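Standup notes
- DV: blocked on the single-chain target, sequence here:
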Amino acid sequence: MDKKTEFKEFVKGHPKLISFVKNGEMTWQRFYEMYDLYGGEGEVWNPYLSKENTRQAVGAAATGAAAATAGVGLADMFGWLKQIDLDGVQGGINSLQRVLSVISDLKTPETKKPEYKPRPLYKHFED
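- DV (later): unblocked, structure below
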């Protein structure tokens, strides 16, 4: 089993860690780095897995479950909006505009140029 799978199993065994990520106190990347360096039995986990934090995590999980049954909250929506990559959205819009301009160029009929009529040889300077 690779480290990533072992870490997933560790988190499944310690669901208290989820509350720290949801609160913004930690990130999954930092938790994974701690797991990679110290393993699942290191003392580094004591602040996150202690009994005091367990009560807080259980309370937060209960509150989160109640909020989940009530529907999506305004805070969740703002959280999702913060995670949107605006540069990526702008790039997508620009490519869509380019595609639409190419399609519109294909649809528009070409204007006919007036037919070329050579000047008569006997006419000089618009006589």
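- Follow-up: Helices lie at 3-13, 16-23, 28-38, 46-49, 51-70, 74-82, 86-107.
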